[in-house]
Prior knowledge:
Elements: H1 2-62, E1 65-68, E2 78-84, E3 87-93, E4 99-103, E5 114-116, E6 121-124, E7 129-132, E8 138-140, E9 149-155, E10 158-163
Antiparallel strand pairs: 1-10, 2-3, 3-4, 4-9, 5-6, 6-7, 7-8, 9-10
Amino acid sequence: MNANKTLTHTNGADTDAGDLMSRRTFAKVLFGGVGLCYAGAIGYPIYRYLASPIERSMETTKVSEVTLPDAATLELGAAMMFKFGSKPAMLIHHKDDTWSAMEAVCTHLACTVQYQAEENRIYCACHGGVYDAKTGAAVSGPPPKGLKAFNVKVQDGTVTVSKV
Ligand code: FES
């Protein structure tokens, strides 16, 4: 009877030790997994932040030409936005039937600029920067230099914009 009690007690202690070990292992795995999740949640945005300028510049340098098949139907005095690589760009069909294209990124603090047909100018709403609609040259306001201009070729109803 006593032997049975001892045996039972010993088995209970073994079971407690086994439970304790498995709880410790479980806790290690759980905290390790949670730690990895936190590291990923913090590390990935930091990695993207650090890598994005490099990736963007590589992507931008790769693109040298953009074809805009529907752009030839753009009315006189109208403009359209498009992407040249990773950056916004603007195509303008002037009233004299000439074309201009330029990067639509303000040279002051990189806001996206917009074409104002009634004023025939490119305007940056952030700080009132004004650019020439034909050349992209800085006209007034804080922009230190003009917008980056592109070549425009219209052929067979398709507009092709390329780096100068
Ligand atoms: S960002 Fe365009 S004028 Fe300042």
